[in-house]
Amino acid sequence: MHTDESINAYITGELLAGQSFHYDPQDRHGPALFLLAKPIAQIGGAKTFSDLTETELRLSTVLTGAATVLLFGAAVEMFGFVACFIAALLFAVAPLPVYYHRYFIHESLFVWATLGLILSGWRAQQKKSIWLAVLAGFFAALMLTCKETAPIHFFALLLSAIGVRVWSVRIRSRAATSPEIVRRDNCLFPVHPKIPKMILAALLTFVFFSVLLFTWFGQNWRALADLIHAVSNFTARAGGEGHQKPFWYYAKLLSDGWSGAIILLLALCGIASVVSQFFGRKKIHPLAPRIFLTIYALAIFGIYSLIPYKTPWLALNFWLAIAFLAGFAFEWIWFASPKISVRMVVLILLLALGFLIAHDTRERVFRNPADENNPYAYAHTVDDLLGLPVRLNELVAREKLSDPRIAVVAADPWPLPWYLRKWSQVGFWQPGQNCGAADFYLTSPEAAAQMTNQLQNLRPDFFGVRPNVLIILWSPEMKKPKP
Questions:
Q1: Which of 10, 169, 279, 435 is most exposed by smallest CB count within 10 Å?
Q2: 246-283 in b/e burial notation, b at 16+ Cβ within 10 A?
Q3: What is the pLDDT of residue 25?
């Protein structure tokens, strides 16, 4: 379990124990993930933190990832069948989405909500439906209650809508000579008396569900003030805080591996296909939705690349757009020529790409998920730590202790609370604090240097936690048998 996963697991355990969710603006995210994870864990039989398993927790994001793949079916009317089919395939089998859909973090649910907002918002505008506008407001609230980075996406979506609005005005200016253009290109945002009501309905729904979830159904109203404080915290964090990366980090991450560069190239071809249709006469599919998505893709990729703070799971946020753009490219190439021979070549190339994707997914997701050389395994817990609870069980049995007292002294103990959850008497202290007597100690090397008197007669066992991070298990020396 990654450190972030273990923290999310601990919060889920608190909810299982009957506590309410308390939003922490300093270094946590919103409640939406836990609202989904708690009932799934309960269905699995978990009642406390110690009952939880990796499967029960990660199942929530696995199901969300599967729901995202299915949601591409609802996008067919907006983007076309071929493009949505290719995008769904990429989301289902490509290494990056598969890897992080098996991670108990907020991104998977956030991406599902983002796609839901795009689809419901677009269809609300097309059908002039207040109920679909309400649904769009709900998806927007779900995004915010997943992660506080939602305003970045709201800005990118607004920018996309403005871009399409400008384009639609250009189309209408040509309507005098060719009214068919307007019908063919399916313009966005025609003036309609229902639109103000739809916007109001969406905003009220957004506010209602955001307040409802952040306050945990009215149990913690302080969360609203904390949410305001989160703005300054996340603005400061955007500067890096040890996670700063260069502008091209995401481009390098996405183009890595056997298949990455090809998928990224397909996405660029997808942008080229939209530009080509914009200036050309041949339209494969209504163009407005594709212009909308292209602007959104460029905006969101540019914003995330400009922000110094970067982690690999954030790339899932614009993988959604990349998958669609790759679908546009395949469709563009497929319809470029009606010849059977050309289309056979396209299918062969697609199968070859599928083989490369399968190789990368197998290597990064299943064979080496925690390897330092895996670009998705960012400061991930190393396999060595799995031996810690096994060793503790051996020592507890040797010392014949029914309920051992374990003292953990480290500045950053995560994910140890997860791996020590089966023992009831586990305490955590910062280096320099007096932890008192214990049957076993777990310390960082820095803390051990300050505890030489307490540890002088104990035997150390070393375990890796993350790359270049150690934890030391201190236990009594094994008594020699009497002659």
A1: 279
A2: eeebbeebbebbebbebbbebbebbbebbeebeeeeee
A3: 79
